[in-house]
Design goal:
The protein is mainly beta. The protein has helices at 2-26, 167-170, 201-204, 244-248, and strands at residues 38-42, 47-50, 55-58, 61-64, 73-81, 86-92, 96-99, 108-116, 121-131, 136-143, 146-155, 160-164, 183-190, 209-215, 219-223. It contains four helices and 15 strands. The strands form five sheets. Strands 2-9-8-5-6 form a five-stranded mixed beta sheet, with no helix packed on it. The chain has a three-stranded antiparallel beta sheet with strand order 10-11-12. A three-stranded antiparallel beta sheet has the order 13-14-15. A hairpin with a 4-residue loop joins strand 5 (73-81) and strand 6. The chain is elongated, with a radius of gyration of 32 Å.
């Protein structure tokens, strides 16, 4: 038994010595390659103040650890969809070139991504777009599906005019506009200061005025910054309790249809 144990012990030491020798002889036999990474992404501001209809163009400047080979990197732009809690692809390519409308026609967190196709490693930089309330003119237009809004706004910082057509469709506004509705009028007015008239889109987005839409079926309001809509923006939500409109319409579940809208303050002044 002692002889067998000693023999096994000697064999084990022999295998260990062979392994150590093999490791020593193997040193330097590997071909190491540096990973080409993106060290710096510049040329992208932390925040962009934009208007509806504005053409946003961004070309980032990338600092690589080595000159990239052909097709070594691919580039993509994303926006964050807070309703789905996910990043959605907006555009491919190094330069972002997008009109501020639709899915990015509102406050959004955005991201630029450079992806190394060889190493499958991505490098990302995030930024924000902040929608600014326009100064200009709006027109209510009859369309095949009811109505839409066209807008001409002036961007004083760039001394330029922007034209946006079919804003409601372009902004994917949820305001119910459909075939068979007849547009009557569009009115802009300062948002109410009476807290009892909430909810109001006037202050929710930082602006001090509201867009009123009048049709032959209902009267409602839109947020002036991004033309978004909620059912609470219908005019029924802003009538005073026990008023004629409240008793004869709101309490009976009838929509308020205004052929003409007169805006007055709390003292009844127009």
């Amino acid at each position: 038994m002692k002889h067998i144990i000693n023999k096994l012990f000697t064999t084990a030491i022999l295998f260990i010595l062979i392994g150590v020798t093999a490791c020593n002889e193997d040193k330097g036999n590997y071909d190491y390659q540096d990973i080409n990474s993106v060290e710096v992404i510049s040329g992208i501001s932390a925040e962009y103040a934009v208007y509806l209809g504005y053409q946003l163009q961004i070309t980032p400047i990338l600092g690589y650890t080595a000159a990239p080979g052909a097709d070594e990197f691919t580039y993509k732009w994303y926006y964050y969809d807070s309703s789905a809690s996910s990043w959605e692809l907006l555009q491919e390519g190094l330069t972002l070139d997008q009109e501020i409308a639709g899915v990015i026609g509102r406050n959004r967190t955005m991201a630029f991504e450079a992806h190394n196709e060889k190493t499958d490693i991505s490098y990302r930089k995030t930024f924000k777009i902040v929608l600014t309330a326009p100064i200009g003119y709006v027109a209510l237009c009859e369309t095949a599906d009811g109505y839409d809004v066209d807008m001409v706004s002036y961007v004083s910082t760039d001394s330029m005019f922007l034209f946006a057509k079919n804003v409601l469709d372009g902004m994917e506004s949820e305001v119910p506009h459909h075939e068979g509705q007849r547009p009557v009028d569009i009115v802009t007015a300062a948002g109410p200061t009476n807290l009892n008239l909430y909810p109001t889109p006037a202050f929710a987005d930082g602006t001090n005025y509201t867009v009123y839409i009048l049709t032959d079926q209902y009267t409602t309001r839109l947020a002036s910054k991004d033309f978004s809509w909620r059912s609470e923006y219908n005019i029924e939500s802003s009538v005073e309790g026990n008023s004629e409109l409240d008793v004869n319409y709101k309490q009976q579940g009838k929509p308020i249809v205004a052929q003409k809208l007169k805006i007055t303050d709390q003292q009844g002044r127009r």
